[in-house]
């Protein structure tokens, strides 16, 4: 009997969180399920150990990396921004883990998918900057969710995005010449200046960049500002996105 090929291994960097008096490394179940069921891969939680991880050794063992959303924001000093104004949750241990991991994964040809904070981290990793409060920027809309709404409403479609003609997302949506899809919106920060070598894959009606790819990457390297992992099986583009990510990881596993 022929042996079944092992599932590709996709790493998911964790957030560092205090739960009571104890520190934990955590990630959301929805991301784990999207990797397991949507990408057909084996999820591996990467602890937020910063330079305690040998990044080169790690990426050599992985077939993909999913950089998730989070309640925390990238610390502004990573992109030359002003100190955050007001109460803002930061996660320096995650920053110290993900920023070098993103660069190393792309350099090694490891497929990469970023979601929400993950898009912002990818932009910062390649020298871009962020709006710390999108809703305070003249001409930009409020992209935050209403936290008083039920979670199904918070993650429901909020606004359209315009897909870039000839882009990866446009192809996955079955409209290579562009077009629009509706997405959810649960973020207070966003791309200000695009990172070096990044290409825009989608924009919101107010012009805010909603998806990017690494133009020079030799493997899948894409990030979106919305949350495709939420009930991904109910949305055609989300299903196609995770399937494509999983296929790229499977190809990496086959070569490895």
SSE-based structural type: alpha/beta
Indicate the low-confidence ranges by residue numbers.
Answer: none
The number of distinct helices, counting runs of at least 4 residues, comes to: 7
Span between N and C termini? Answer: 23 Å
CA gyration radius, whole angstroms:
17 Å
Largest sheet: 9 strands, mixed
Task: Summarize model confidence as the mean pLDDT.
Answer: 97
Query: How does the overall form come out from the CA principal axes?
Result: globular
Helix content: 25-40%
Largest sheet: spatial strand order? 4-1-5-6-13-12-11-8-9
Sketch the topology as an H/E string, one letter per element. EEEHEHEHEHEHEHEEEEEH
Relative strand content: 15-25%
Number of strands: 13
Question: Could you outline the blueprint of secondary structure elements for this entry?
Answer:
Blueprint: E1 9-13, E2 15-19, E3 22-26, H1 29-38, E4 42-46, H2 55-61, E5 64-67, H3 92-108, E6 112-115, H4 117-125, E7 130-131, H5 151-154, E8 159-163, H6 168-172, E9 180-183, E10 190-191, E11 198-203, E12 209-214, E13 221-224, H7 236-255
Parallel strand pairs: 1-4, 1-5, 5-6, 6-13
Antiparallel strand pairs: 2-3, 7-10, 8-9, 8-11, 11-12, 12-13
Helix pairs in contact: 2-3, 3-4
